[in-house]
TrEMBL record:
The lineage of its organism: Bacteria, Pseudomonadati, Balneolota, Balneolia, Balneolales. It comes from Cyclonatronum proteinivorum. This is Uncharacterized protein.
Amino acid sequence: MKTLGTVPHPQMMITIFMWNNRYLIKFEAGPYEQTFKIDATMAENPEDVKALVDDDFCEKVLRRFIEMNKDFGLLLQKL
């Protein structure tokens, strides 16, 4: 897996990778991560992929992290 770059964000680590003829956009926050895969034929270069990571999409990813945290908290209460 080759790291192609990062996208600055105050609340998440966002990294762009190339692996198996796919671009991967990986979002990390605390113990959680979300990865989105895009076929390499759909984008001409890594900058096109980075451009997809706009404020609207990042907000949706953050909301998903909040839900993941709630679900994980409920799971841990079962211990």
